[in-house]
Design brief:
Layout (H helix, E strand, L loop, with lengths): L6 H12 L3 H7 L18 H16 L6 E5 L5 H10 L2 E6 L2 H13 L6 E5 L9 E7 L10 H11 E14 L8 H6 L9 H11 L2 E8 L2 H15 L1 H7 L2 H20 L2 E9 L10 H8 L2 H8 L1
Parallel strand pairs: 1-2, 1-4, 2-3, 4-5
Antiparallel strand pairs: 5-7, 6-7
Length: 304
């Protein structure tokens, strides 16, 4: 059955995409290497500014306080975890299945002198132990597979403190469960599956978690992909030197097709906030906007 994604298959699928040369991703991502949708709070934002805004928006929904223990499921190249530790005073544990990402994450944390406050491990989310005040997962749920949705949210529930807050950031399909694009599955993201909001809600409810906030971000990923595609094209000769012409054409098709799917098709980004105790978050959403509008420097001072 497709998309079961047991442990061995999950690591193999992750390696197919995320263990490509780190030099490739440096050519078209922002400097922090955020490989998920940015958040264009203003239309004139650069990619770097919009990715910083995305991290800040997530931190707002996590209601972060200095010293809180945070689990980052699918920690990528470490940018989010490092930001949560450096700017907001969190104690972060990040897990990834990519050896390439793990190595880079650890190097980046060491260069910033943050190894005591942000740690990265090569570990499946199903094998994490301990209790965390906050759990966050950005751009990883698309690789879980429908057969593992219940397991994923069950793991979050098991790891989350009774008064904790979790935030899930994932690509989603607005028209309900559907089949994957076979070309994307074969060449780009083997084992991937775009969820519907109904699937997320059902699995979260069955796990014992309570959905306290849902945001549908519509065209943000289209703008992100356009920026990536522009940068990819600007560095096409360097990409071809790393791989070959076939690889360039394949990735151009992937980036352009994904941009079109977010601009004209069924794809959006879901940000879902989850708790065990409904009193763990404020009664209104004002705290998110207030946090977003404070300067990043003000957040950093508060963390220190």
């Amino acid at each position: 059955m497709k998309h079961k994604n047991p442990r061995r298959a999950s690591q193999r699928n992750a390696a197919h995409h995320y263990d490509l040369s780190g030099a490739l991703y440096r050519l078209f991502l922002d400097a922090d290497r955020q490989y998920s949708s940015a958040y264009f709070a203003r239309p004139d934002m650069s990619l770097e500014e919009a990715q910083d805004a995305k991290k800040r928006h997530i931190a707002a929904k996590l209601l972060l306080e200095p010293g809180q223990r945070v689990l980052d499921i699918g920690s990528g190249w470490g940018g989010l975890g490092i930001t949560l530790a450096e700017d907001y005073g969190a104690d972060v544990s990040g897990v990834t299945l990519s050896t390439e990402q793990l190595t880079e994450s650890r190097v980046r944390a060491a260069k910033k002198g943050l190894t005591s406050r942000v740690r990265f491990d090569l570990r499946d989310y199903r094998d994490v132990q301990g209790v965390f005040d906050r759990v966050v997962s950005v751009g990883m749920f698309e690789h879980v597979g429908a057969a593992q949705y219940q397991t994923f949210f069950g793991a979050i529930c098991d790891r989350l403190a009774e008064d904790g807050v979790a935030v899930l950031h994932t690509i989603g399909n607005v028209h309900g469960p559907g089949r994957n694009n076979p070309w994307i599955e074969k060449y780009i993201f083997p084992g991937g599956m775009v969820p519907a909001l109904s699937q997320i809600a059902e699995a979260a409810e069955r796990s014992g978690l309570i959905v306290t906030d849902v945001e549908i971000q519509r065209l943000h990923y289209a703008e992100t992909l356009k920026a990536w595609r522009d940068r990819f094209e600007a560095h096409r000769d360097e990409v071809r030197a790393l791989y070959d012409e076939r690889f360039c054409r394949m990735w151009e098709f992937y980036l352009a097709g994904a941009e079109a799917a977010f601009k004209e098709g069924d794809l959006v980004v879901f940000q879902v906030q989850l708790v065990k105790d409904p009193q763990a978050v404020p009664l209104t959403r004002d705290y998110i906007t207030d946090f977003d509008r404070r300067s990043p420097h003000a957040h950093k001072i508060a963390a220190e």
